[in-house]
Amino acid sequence: MKRYEQLAEQIAELIRSGVLAPGERVPSVRQARRSYGVSPSTIFQAYYLLEDRGLIQARARSGYFVRELARQPLAEPGSSAPTATSTEVDVSELVFSVLGSLKDPATVPFGSAFPSPELFPLPRLARSMAHALRDMPGHAVIADMTAGNPDLRRQIGLRYRVAGVSLALEELVITNGAMEALNLCLQTVTQPGDLVAIESPAFYATLQVLERLKLKAVEIPVHPREGIDLGVLAERLANLPIKACWFMSSLQNPMGATLGEAQKAELYALLKRHQVPLIEDDVYAELHYGAQPPRPLKSFDDAGLVMHCGSFSKSLAPGYRVGWVAGGRYAEQIARLKLMTTISPSVPAQAAIADYLQHGGYDRHLRKLRIALETQQAAMLASAARHFPAETRVSRPAGGYFLWFEFPERVDSLQLFQLALAQGISLAPGPIFSATRGFRHCARLNHGHPWDAQSEQAMAALGRILATL
Ligand SMILES: Cc1ncc(COP(=O)(O)O)c(C=O)c1O
């Protein structure tokens, strides 16, 4: 990380934690020079970066101030508290009924799982698709099916290297999105009836996969900033025959938590001690707001226990259905299982993404995307503070495009969901994120769409509905 990026990160953290309050002046160049021992040009570069990220703004002849938008008057939720027993999962019907309601493009998409298509370089990707297919040797159309496009494999390997993970390319299995990777991993290491540790709340598709494979969920509490409760996990691993863990150690969906590096090391040590494999779902890895990507648990893996699943769906090419897993000691089994089921993701889609990664300016696109998402997060937080009941609690993740809301206990989020939908607004109600249909007064809202008057009106409408519940 460059020095100005480090300084920007330090100041962003002061803003995020509330040490620097909205409207407060950030240190002047002279103060910052004295406190941080850096040159004026480094300070200016850091402040320009923070201004781009929507966290501070310049006032004529007065310096830089923390933006009002960065205010977080709503408190943060506490840890979740799932039951201590294992549970059979039965959520699919509820999930499908919620997802089915998201299809109307006229609906305000707070319930969506994707950012706005406007934020993706789709025309540039189309050019990459045309270019890659024009140049593709005939034999590649068939040969690339099994192992995957070699350029794509190399590019993914390179990105791991940059993120501090040295990976043997043989570990990589290219899949139909992360969803296939996650399914294959779980099938590789479990049998029906086994116990799997998951987060509570968890991504709803995790619950559906467990349900489909007849696995039982052991739900581990999650804190919206600190991530999973390692004490509870240690206790469960010691006392229950858990066969696998499925966690998101960074930008967890839906709560947004990212474990600190020390906690990641501790988690890995725990899994290694018990020799329990980890399926690491890291599909939001590229959407961090800070200058550095959070370190994946895979980077600690010296025993091949971690199956690290990634995807281009959230950061580049939704609908192309290209993802992957770095499968550790399970890679070969996962690859065979893939050959027995879907054989391969589309070869043209792989070739298009490989071409884009080489020539399309992926990192430039990601920088713009992260700034858009962070600015929209600030807008949604500020809007929630204006319109939602004062007792509402909300997460504040350091990346991604979801906020997790905990409403007053009296609110039934399934009722809120129905009433909001009748007004053309979608949201993801809490119970779809729980094996036991918990989180009844919670909801996940998506801020992945450019913020406009319609977004503001929709938040106001939600606020009016909340006031009646
Ligand atoms: C946490 C999480 N994991 C996996 C996926 C699936 O990713 P893909 O579209 O690559 O299959 C999603 C998409 O919603 C997700 O939110």
From TrEMBL:
Occurrences of domain HTH gntR-type (ranges): 1-69
Entry keywords, A to Z: Aminotransferase, DNA-binding, Pyridoxal phosphate, Transcription, Transcription regulation, Transferase
Keyword flag Glycoprotein: no
GO molecular function terms noted in the UniProt entry: DNA binding; DNA-binding transcription factor activity; pyridoxal phosphate binding; transaminase activity
InterPro entries: Aminotransferase_I/II_large, HTH_trans_reg/aminotransferase, PyrdxlP-dep_Trfase, PyrdxlP-dep_Trfase_major, PyrdxlP-dep_Trfase_small, Tscrpt_reg_HTH_GntR, WH-like_DNA-bd_sf, WH_DNA-bd_sf
CDD domains in the cross-refs: AAT_like, WHTH_GntR
Keyword Membrane listed: no
Pfam families (alphabetical): Aminotran_1_2, GntR
Domain of life: Bacteria
PANTHER family (alphabetical): HTH-TYPE TRANSCRIPTIONAL REGULATORY PROTEIN GABR (PTHR46577), TRANSCRIPTIONAL REGULATORY PROTEIN (PTHR46577:SF2)
UniProt family annotation: In the C-terminal section; belongs to the class-I pyridoxal-phosphate-dependent aminotransferase family.
Name of the protein in question: GntR family transcriptional regulator
Organism: Aquipseudomonas alcaligenes (strain ATCC 14909 / DSM 50342 / CCUG 1425 / JCM 20561 / NBRC 14159 / NCIMB 9945 / NCTC 10367 / 1577)
